[in-house]
Amino acid sequence: MQADLVQILSMVELYFKGLHYGDAGTLETLFHQDCVLKAPGQRRSISTWLNDVAKRSVPAHNNHPWEYRVLGVELMSEQAVVKLNCPLPHGHFIDYLGLLKEQGEWKIVNKMYANNSATYCLQSKAPQINQSSNVTNP
Question: What pTM was computed for the model?
Answer without folding.
Answer: 0.85
